[in-house]
Amino acid sequence: MLKYLQQVEKVTAAAAAVENDCFESDSLNEVATRSDELGQLARVFQRMVQTLKDREQELSEAKEQLEAVLNAVPGSISWINTNGVYLGVNKHLAENLNLLPENVNGQKLEFFKSQSQFAQFMSKFLSSQQTAASQEIEVQINNSKRYYLIAAQKYQQGNAAVTVGIDITDRKRAQEALRIAEENYRSIFENALDGIFQSTFDGHYINVNPAMAQIHGYDSPQEMMVTVAEIGSQLYVEPSCRQDFQRLMEAQGEVKGFEYQVYQRDGNIIWVEENTRAVGDTNGNLFYYEGIIQDITKRKQEEDALKQQVQDLRIEIDQQKRVCQVAAITQTDYFREIQAQIESMRFDEDF
């Protein structure tokens, strides 16, 4: 009876050891050999504790794997409860704050910067009925302005939230650079003195600037694009010039200094000079033509006037040369001898 009571005490002590996380399974080996209910209880106790240890080991391994994954993610991850207290952060976020992850745990949202956009966003989200939200925010990290896309998701029946922050600074800067480039291009396009256009291979305008419309006598780019349905047949005075243009584009992918005559809206004919290139992908698929056109009518008129002046000068020079040649001939002894003979003949006729 005494031994039985001692073994009951061992089971009771084992229960206390489990509670204090110091249970040794071997302490119940002797009791577990019994065939009665006490022995069965000891064996169940041992299996239960072993199962708990196995689960704890699995949980520890899973936690380690999760931490490895989260620390490998090139983004900032945090867990925050509804009171705005950090439950945990990944290594990337801690490094951005120049802190260790364990030094962030337990801190309030405002501990880093009370008026930060992240703190304001999370405070609003945690107090709302939303289960998920996202927002772009601006943060100062190591005296540098950075931009993050923050995505937040609640869990544990809304009692906590996980956040993921992706650094989009490079994308934002690229977008800003693109916006500035587009504004600059648009400014050049709208204010250029030369005509700028984009057109399809078969002769339809995609885009023209104000100068392009003005050169061709139209009041606006919109009017020109609506009116000119086919460039080759409506603008070119000589259709063969359009054919020459197409051949050059197909062979070279560009034309430079291509001069031809076009009709303006009122039927007036002007000269233009065109520089155009084909725009396409690396596989050779053509998207459109893009080019610049200048009105060279005045230059052509000046060239024609200069040619006429040169021609007139040549005629004048030829006339002067003939006068000089005649004068030179009259000074020769041969000419004087002939002239004397003629005078002698005239004298004989007089008598």
Descriptive overview:
The termini are far apart. This protein folds into three domains: 2-68, no CATH class; 73-172, 2-Layer Sandwich (Beta-Lactamase), CATH 3.30.450; 193-300, PAS domain (Beta-Lactamase, 2-Layer Sandwich), CATH 3.30.450.20. The longest helix has 36 residues, at 37-72. A hairpin with a 5-residue loop joins strand 9 and strand 10 (286-295). The chain has helices at 2-19, 29-32, 37-72, 91-96, 101-104, 117-126, 169-191, 210-215, 221-227, 231-234, 239-252, 297-330, 333-350, and strands at residues 76-81, 86-89, 132-141, 144-155, 160-167, 195-199, 205-208, 254-263, 269-280, 286-295. The chain is rod-shaped and about 185 Å long. It has 13 helices and ten strands. It has a five-stranded antiparallel sheet, with helices on both faces.
